[in-house]
Amino acid sequence: MSILSIQNLSKRYGNTKALSNISLEIPRGSIFGLLGPNGAGKTTLIRIINQIIEADSGVILFNDSPLSPHHIAKIGYLPEERGLYKKMKVGDQLRYFAKLKGMPGPIANDKVQFWLKKLDILSWQEKRIDDLSKGMAQKVQFITTVIHEPELLILDEPFSGFDPVNAEIIRNEILELKEKGTTLVISTHRMESVEQLCDQIAMIYRSEKILDGRLRDIKQAFRPNQFQVQLKTDAPDALQYDPLRFEDGVAEFNVSLEGETTNEVLSRLMALGQVVGFKEILPTMEEIFIQQVKKHTHE
Amino acid sequence: MNKVWLVIQREYLSRVQKKSFLLATLLTPLIFPAIMGVFLWLATSDTDTDSLRIIEVVDENNMFFLESSDQYAFSFSRVDPEEGKRMVIDGERFGFLYIPKIELSQPTGITYFGEKNANMGLITLMESALKKRIEEQRLFQSGISPEVINAYRTDVSIRSITLDESGEEKITDATVNYTIGFLAGILIYVFIFLYGNQIMQGVIEEKSSRIIEILVSSIRPFQLMMGKIIGIGAVGLTQFLIWVVLIGTISSVVVGYFGMQMPQQQAFEMANADMGDVVVEQSGVQDLLQVISGIDFLKLVVTFTFYFLGGYLFYGAFFAAVGAAVDAPSEAQQFMFPVTIPLLIGYMGLFVFVLNDPNSQISFWLSIIPFTSPIGMMGRISYGVPFWELLLSMGLLVGGFFASTWLAAKIYRIGILVHGTKVSYKTLWRWLKSSH
User: Fold this and answer.
1) Which residues in chain A are closer than 8 Å to B217, comparing Cβ atoms?
2) Topology with regard to the membrane (chain B) (predicted)?
3) Which of B9, B213, B224, B436 to mutate to test the interface with A (most CBs of A within 10 A)?
4) Out of A139-153, B168-182, B230-244, B342-356, which region has the weakest mean confidence (pLDDT)?
5) B81 pLDDT tier (thresholds 50, 70, 90)
6) Which residue has the higher pLDDT, A93 or B252?
7) From residue A258, how far is each of A204, A225, A255, B393 by CA, in Å?
8) B333-363 pLDDT per residue, tens
9) What residue ranges do the domains of chain B occupy?
């Protein structure tokens, strides 16, 4: 079942198309990757979901009902461009954002304590953002997006701007939130960064959706049926394959399955020497993306 | 509505809790007495250091006498004019006044020599003394004795009384009305600029520190803008009220300390500076007190508060729109013209037209059109304004506030999300026209 159903969404800025006829289904409880280069239209789509701007046409259903202002409380948003009030105390700031999202005061207080403790910054409560290190401020920033316990959490480039330690903390928090049933949408142009996290992805290129589906299915579909082989041999020149590398008597090369099974290929290779490595080459999201873009622009 | 309240609270508390707010609020009422003190101190120390300036006077008629003052002493002698000039050049004398033989009916040829340009005060002092003496001499020559002249010297001051529709008579005083209009107009002008600027800075802060995107995902831009404008307005009102209370307390403490002498003396000085007669002085004080008690303070306070807030709200939205259109305060200058010019027109108009002739055609329009009415109307109010004009002006200001906010919100809503692009008036126009 989808928490968010986007149907035929379009948006133009003047003469430039930002989104053309985008349709997406975001399943409840999943981590959804919204992939595409900068300027593809990801942020526009996210802003429309957050009701910051309006679409020219199309429909968005949140839990099967049309998106409306009262859904704001159920959505959390970490924008790519983010900041905090520098002169405001950590605790006040978090309470303010929680209440703006519609959380009642006393509950907001409890949640502030909970999250500050969880991320190990409870003692910083009375400090102003000015006095915090960048890493600390990043943690506070993350709390502002999750404090009101949203059903849907939208993170725009969540790993850019965070230092590696904090990026790891956030990665763990994302997985924990998923465990608890939160649906996450992660938008990024760095496709490799979300490969291990996402269940589903959609690729957006020049305002259009060029691919979407379950990550595993996509990877399967784009398998080139190639294997990387490492073979110990004394006569590399006798191989019918061009070795990519020949080192310490081990030749490394790629084999394509052309109608054969892996066992058939292997037994043929075994005759040539000792097989020390045999691994399927899986495409990266980046490669799939480039392949799709090529296909798309040729059409 | 609940969210607007949250924003108002934040904007208000974040400013009121600052140390700089406390300092400005407590120190500003002390600045004016302090400046006056410095001037007084300078004035007294000035006469102390510059020892008495001696002016050599040669009077060929043997008729004039100039009384020495705090600053100038006059030494009469019969030196040769060339010798007199030499004394000035050598620095023995501050100046040299030469009075040749003159016809009383046509006194010409009186000359002053000084090393520096003579200041207006000195020339006026000498001129009036000589003039008085010549007049006395001529009256005396025509057979009127000096005693008679003194006995007939009279001072005249006109009591001005306005009649209102019910026929009630009220003593008015142009000086008092002028002062009230002047102070109220300037206060509103300064307030709009000061706090309008705070709105702009606040919007730029939220935009440049990129908090804005988080904010607008939780609250509508219009609510955010209104919350900010109202919150900052409340800060201004708080500050103003504290000033009123502080100044009131300080002055009543001062008055209590110096006894009742102080205000009487001040009142006397204000009423008429060169009156010597005790009886006239008494009536002057009474009149002034009557004038002050005749002012409808409730009406004044109510209208002032209305225009104070109305003017602020009318312009506040524009300041917010300007802040939203730029990335840094330094870029805001180019969009400030539409805000600054009408305010300046109101300010200049206050001095050039409204205070001089509150009932003229142009004063009327300045106090009706929302762009200038907060300043213009406050300049007129103490002189008395027909009720319908007040109502029209207030109504238009409220309407103007809705219109300005509606227009500014269109720019604000789009501007806050635009980063790093040069915005021109053309862009603003496009934003104004865009439907959503």
Assistant:
1) 50-52, 72, 75, 77, 79
2) Multi-pass membrane protein
3) B213
4) B168-182
5) confident
6) A93
7) 32, 8, 9, 88
8) 888 888 889 999 999 998 888 888 888 888 8
9) 50-149, 171-433
Mind listing the pLDDT tens digit for each residue in A204-222?
999 999 989 998 899 888 8
Closest chain B residue to A155, measured at CA: B214
* Nearest CA distance, B27 vs chain A (angstrom): 23
Q: What are the chain A neighbours of B215 within 8 Å (beta carbons)? A: 100
Residue A25 has pLDDT above 50, yes or no: yes
Find the closest chain B residue to A12 by CA distance: B436
Q: Does A105 touch chain B (CB under 8 A)?
A: no
- Amino acid A183: pLDDT: 95
Go through the domains of chain A in sequence order and give each one's CATH number: 2-220 (3.40.50.300), 224-281 (no CATH)
Identity of the residue in B14, B211, B219 whose CB atom sits nearest the CB atom of A84: B211
Distance from the Cα of B196 to chain A's closest Cα (Å) equals 20
Q: Please indicate if any CB of chain B lies within 8 Å of the CB of A241.
A: no
Contact flag B218-A72 (C-beta cutoff 8 Å): yes
Quote the pLDDT of residue B44.
62
CATH of B50-149, one of 1.20.1630.10, 1.10.10.10, 3.40.190.10, 3.40.50.720: 3.40.190.10
Average pLDDT over residues B41-52: 59
